[in-house]
Amino acid sequence: MVGQSTMMMYGNRAWEVHNANGKFRVLVTKNMVGSLWLDLLKARDCRVEVCTSRDPLQSSDIQAAFGSKCDGVIGQLTEKWDESAFSALKSVGGRAFSTMAVGYDNVDVRAATQYGIPVGNTPGVLTEATAEMAVSLIYACARRVVEADAFMRAGKYSIWLPDLFIGKLLHGKTLGIIGAGRIGSAVGLMMARGAHMNVIYYDKYQNKGFEAKLESFRKALAENNEDLIEWKRGESVEDVLKNSDVVTLHPNLDRTTWHMIDEKNLNLMRRDAIIVNCARGPVIDEVALVEHCRRNPDFYAGMDVFEDEPLMKPGLKDLHNVVVVPHIASATLWTRSGMSTLAAANVSSMLHNHPVANAHDVTPYVNAESAHSVPQSAPAIVNAKDLNLPMLAKPKL
To answer: What is the pTM of this model?
Structure first.
């Protein structure tokens, strides 16, 4: 934090106050990344109160901080934003909410809409960072990086041996993608172009742009007399699981994808396959995964997210063939500071009655040189249409 601030206590939680005389009172439930987000809120006449606790906040903690007046909140994916939370926010004058995340399965958008509260999210800055983490987990599993690192640190390396930490070569193998949106397709292109992996993807919507890029790369290989990659759109999730050496998961979390990867579907996969989850934890039945990895020591899993986050199901952490990281797929400085700025732009724009951009290109927000050069529009409001919010006019071509 920069600049002058004071401290307030609500319940047993401390909150750091910036721009105490600001017109609009905005709560930020976790300290965010960078400084542009805070500069933006202050420049737009917001009194900003940031919870200093690094522990998860319960709804009661947040509602205790509402007081008698709260204009807006920037929340996190670790919190439950349900009907009671939005009812309480509305009762103290709440007019805007944004999560600092792309996904909002922890937010009851219908309830927020019922109370007339816009809900913002932060898309457009996580694609490459999350895709790179998926690729990192794929290679960490394939080449047994974590096991080898622990072996070295334990002082066990005494002689080079031909069979020491034999892993899997990815070149020429098949990558399966479940959920080929921006992130899934980015992983596909990284692995096709970088490791010459074949690609099979399943998504209920055909991704023609992704297919065109794969075909363009395939033609470039042909022109240079190199071995070609193959690609196709799979007929089903099961089709991808059966025919892939590596499966990377990138679906949205909803009723149709909860426990999509269960015992039955795990058993469809090759015994020495790799599965990576950088989507949402409950996409995988974690208990089934533990048992599958126990029975199949050559099967590997790379996990950035967990079903009962931050907890792991019993036994998961003890498995040599599982690589686990604490939900850090988007944890690059540019990405997390960008997410922070987008969330601040969503809330502050709604408080000033600025239009909604729902922009495909968010770089004017996240790459702004100062708070005063951030566009005066909300970059992403998921219920803008339902609330009949004014939309930013698109430039004529």
So the answer is: 0.90
